[in-house]
Amino acid sequence: MRPLFVIYLIIFFFVPGGFCFGHGLQHTEIQGGVGLAVLYDDGTPMSYCEVKVYSPADGETEFQQGLTDKNGRFLFYADVSGEWRITVDDGMGHLVQHQITVDPQLTVVPPAATGYSRRQGTIIGLSLIFGIFGLISMFTGLVKRK
Amino acid sequence: MIRVMFVCMIIAVICLSSINHVSAHEHWLDADDYYVAVGDTVVLSLCSGHEFPTRAMVLKERVIHITEVLKPDGVSEKLSLTSGQKCWQASFCGHKAGTYLFRFTLKQPQLKEPKYQAKAIIIVGGVDNPERYQFGQWLEIVPEKKISVLTTGDQLPLYVLFNGARVAARLTVIPEQGRSFYLTTTGTRCASLPLKRAGRYLITSRYQGQECSLIVLFPDRGSEN
């Protein structure tokens, strides 16, 4: 009598449980990724702005879309190597377009040092202006001496 | 040699002054008329662009936070928008004489505070009340004098409020015609806007990550006579 009761119990508790786990889910924590942090001119993060990511394999349909976080950051996981295009749009007229190169190991290729900050640009611009006019004045001075 | 150096410096100053903030992205609330009769319908436009008054783009619907009018009796009413060409539009009819204060704010839905507040003041039936020029919320530019009585050559005192308290801020003034310029206001002293010519003036300011704008229109009163 007792073993039969135990068998009933096993069937009662485990069989429905088995069905429930039939659609079970798995999750694994992942690290790394490819990402971008976007700030306004004044250093304020572009928080909760629309992001679209385009894979090198398909430049028209978004590979992923979402929002930047509170700190203006967005991460995604590249599945092929090549140039990934990311757009960040705050809906108020500010749009950032950026390309990230991913190598065959699916790691980000660091971008070459490009561009200058606004301050650096101003200083360079001023230096160029003074340099050009300095050369002109030197040249005209030499011509006058002759 | 000194003359050449002087010329160099002048050119450098001109080049630097050409890098102005007026080319920054601004938003503004514009009306087809700012001084109307009772019962007249006003069409308001929510505009965005780099060069006022040229409208460059339509704001995304998801960032339009508040669009409302504060009526002379202190009651606010939501404005319903329609998508127009290069801007959102709303129409309003003032059935009572008084000062009507309009605004729209821009905000990412997840943020608590708006990033931008644009205002317009419309005088209906000639009743102009400077006490009705402010919402007392977020960042806003407030004229201290009646705008309806000003004429060319006058000065318009302006101050900046942040949640109802006066703050020190820089104002950018972009006239409809002519060059833009800057004004500064302190917590106690108003900025003084010289009205050199008739037309619309877009005034903008920025404080603690928020931005705001106000349009004031000075009609050519000389041509009315």
UniProtKB/TrEMBL annotation, chain A:
It comes from the Bacteria. Keywords: Membrane, Transmembrane, Transmembrane helix. The chain crosses the membrane at residues 123-143. This is Carboxypeptidase regulatory-like domain-containing protein. The keyword Membrane applies.
TrEMBL record, chain B:
The keyword Signal applies. Keywords: Signal. This is DUF4198 domain-containing protein. It holds the Pfam family DUF4198. Residues 1-24 form the signal peptide.
